[in-house]
Design a protein that fits this description.
This protein is of the alpha+beta class. The chain has 6 helices and 16 strands. A 7-stranded mixed β-sheet has the order 1-2-3-13-5-15-4. A hairpin with a 6-residue loop joins β9 and β10. It is globular, with a radius of gyration of 18 Å. Succinic acid binds next to β5, β14 and β15.
């Protein structure tokens, strides 16, 4: 073993200790990191004072990077493979459209036909207190369901909606919501997804899902709420308290995450994310 791993919680997560992600890395050393990624679902790399190009280069080792066509207003102005999660105002002084990104349980790009394999979020600035991120292990949550519930959800598809991000009633924010809805029609994915690399089943829902395909919202709501509450029980969760120059990578196929807004909004929280493209899944729902 080239790297030391430190477990972060019972449910998921490990810190990869004493590593410089920009240093040359053999295939076998990278293989160990990849194995840890599959085993722990969330990996933490501390003290990575790296450039944007180095962030991209490390991320590319895991696969092709999304150019975030589904989030045009959230991209870095010159680097489309970087998505901003920031409350730094835009150059013209208007609030950033990504200031509330990730404030509900979700998994990245689930409203698309190529939901993400994994994301690597680099922390540039954090507020004095608060602004942590929660991660939940949805494979562990699936395993903890009764056989009866596993059978009940086995063939359901959840419809994932874009444009539901919490924003304000300003014209710019509302234009952003409308743009998102236009770009990304609702997409249905199996509620139980089989991880393409580990073969484990995981609950694939989150708060972007409003109903099951073939059912009404009223009919779907109790079960969706139950499964989301179940998946995010404390025993399946890791809470990450950020430090500047942390990179946290998570597996979008078997985890949910949520950014907490419990900080002084006058302080800056600035994150930049790369998103690794996953395997095709699901179908567009025309009449959602
Ligand atoms: C995200 O959902 O990708 C962002 C999470 C965060 O800002 O903590």
């Amino acid at each position: 073993m080239t790297f030391k791993l430190r477990k972060l919680s019972h449910g998921l997560g490990a810190e990869v200790c004493d590593i410089d992600v920009t240093a040359p890395m053999s295939e076998s050393a990278f293989g160990e990191i990849h194995r840890a990624f599959l085993d722990y679902g969330v990996l933490l790399f501390r003290n990575q004072n790296i450039t944007r190009e180095q962030h991209l280069a490390f991320s590319r080792r895991f696969g092709e990077l999304d150019r975030h066509d589904a989030f045009p207003s959230d991209r870095h102005p010159t680097i489309p493979e970087l998505m901003l999660v920031t409350n730094e105002p835009q150059p013209d002084g208007t609030p950033s459209v990504s200031r509330y990104t990730g404030r509900r349980w979700h998994t990245d790009m689930s409203h698309t036909l190529e939901p993400s394999l994994g994301s690597l979020l680099r922390c540039w600035k954090i507020p004095g207190v608060g602004g942590d991120t929660l991660f939940a292990n949805t494979a562990m949550a699936y395993d903890a369901l009764s056989p009866g519930m596993q059978k009940l959800i086995a063939h359901l598809h959840g419809i994932h909606f874009s444009g539901g991000r919490k924003l304000d009633s300003t014209a710019a924010d509302q234009a952003h919501v409308a743009e998102q809805k236009k770009i990304s029609p609702p997409v249905a994915h199996p509620v139980v997804r089989v991880h393409p690399e580990t073969g484990r089943k995981a609950i694939y829902l989150g708060e972007k899902v409003k109903r099951f395909d073939g059912m009404t919202e009223d009919e779907s709501k109790p079960l969706i709420e139950y499964l989301n509450c179940h998946s995010t029980k404390p025993e399946f969760v890791y809470r990450h308290q950020w430090r500047e120059n942390d990179i946290v990578m998570w597996d979008n196929r078997c985890t949910l995450h949520m950014a907490l807004g419990d900080f002084d909004q006058n302080e800056r929280r600035h994150m930049e994310r790369t998103t690794v493209v996953g395997t095709p899944s699901g179908y567009v729902v025309a009449s959602a």
